[in-house]
Amino acid sequence: MRYKKFLLMVLILAVRTVQAGPFDRDTTLFGPMTEWSLENSTLAGNPYDLNATVTFQLDGSGETRTTEMFYDESNTWKFRFTGTQTGTWQFTTSSADSDLAGISGTVTVAAGSDPAPQGFLVASGSKFARQVGETGLKGETMQVYMNMRDPTESNGGFGTNIDHEHGWTPVDRWDEASERADYIGQTKDNGFDALFLQMNAQWFEANTKASNSLNSSDPDPTTFRALEQLITEAHDADVQVVIWV
User: Fold this and answer.
1) Does an H or E element contain 244, and which?
2) Going residue by residue through the chain (245 aa), what tens digit of pLDDT does each one get?
3) Which residues on neighbouring strands pair with residue 65, listed in sequence order?
4) DSSP secondary structure string, 106-134?
5) Torsion angle in degrees (nearest 10) through CA of 223, 226, 229, 230
6) What count of other Cβ atoms lies within 10 Å of the Cβ of residue 36?
7) For the CA atoms of the chain, what is the radius of gyration?
8) In 3D, which of 202, 239, 240 has the Cα closest to residue 224?
9) Distance between start and end Cα atoms, the chain
10) How far is residue 199's CA from residue 196's CA, in Å, rounded to a whole number?
11) Could you say which of 20, 102, 132, 169 would form a disulfide bridge with 159 (CB–CB 3.0 to 4.6 Å)?
């Protein structure tokens, strides 16, 4: 009898060990974004040309989500997930590069403490809607604040009432915490729920306005990190970000 109990305890511990793998995560519905990092130091060539995807599937429903990894410099690739339905999501990675392929794990999404959690802003026909709970939608208006610092210019921009480059603000300005806070504050103080951001050619080179002056065809991490910081802070203030690509 003692031997059987011992074997049972060993099996329980083994199952717990399998369930708590290195890539397993716990989160809540529409809760904090979950992120994974993978190292790939063997790649030869341009890392931005490498494709790698991750497919998440919800146990018991067949619901799937597929997202792409992104290169974050220093031989590091990342991918992210936000739970839109409760339960356990199994994921597997896929890539032509073996270091990024065949990796699996789980994300367990709990309900959280909010009785009516709200999720992403989505399209519903020709209108905006907000996810409510796991299956609900509610209509959503979006009033966009565009600070036109130079009324003679047709292109608005990010930031304060400083006439910088005729209504266009480069990344090194909206990368500053005070500039972001001021623009988010202006948006709310004027009764708007979304702010406008003009990107121009900065996807490829931070602080570059014209596409005919670019020296790079690769994404510029400086731009993406600044944009992510702005979106995060705006989201925390219940403000959307509208991007003119």
Assistant:
1) strand 240-244
2) 555 555 445 444 444 444 568 999 999 999 889 999 999 999 989 999 999 999 999 999 989 999 999 999 999 999 999 999 999 999 999 999 999 999 999 999 999 999 889 999 999 999 999 999 999 999 998 899 887 554 544 444 554 444 444 556 788 888 889 888 988 998 999 999 999 888 888 999 998 888 888 999 999 999 999 999 999 999 999 999 998 88
3) 56
4) EEEEE--S-SS-EEEEEEETTEEEEEETT
5) -90
6) 19
7) 22
8) 202
9) 69
10) 10
11) 169
Q: Which of 119, 155, 121 is nearest to 140 (CA)?
A: 121
- Token pair, residue 131, equals 């996810």
Please give the backbone phi and psi of residue 49, each rounded to the nearest 5 degrees, phi first.
-90, -5
Are 204 and 214 a contacting pair, CB within 8 Å? Answer: yes
For domain 22-110, give the CATH number. 2.60.40.10
216: CB partners within 8 A, 6+ apart: 204, 205
Per the CB < 8 A criterion, the answer to whether 215 and 205 are in contact is yes
For the chain, where do the domains classified as CATH 2.60.40.10 start and end? 22-110
Query: What are the C-alpha distances in Å from 239 to residues 122, 222, 230, 232?
Result: 15, 23, 10, 10
- Residue written as token pair 């060993």: 10
Instruction: State the residue for tokens 């504050």.
Output: 185
Name the residue type at position 213.
S
The residue to which tokens 């709970």 are assigned: 133
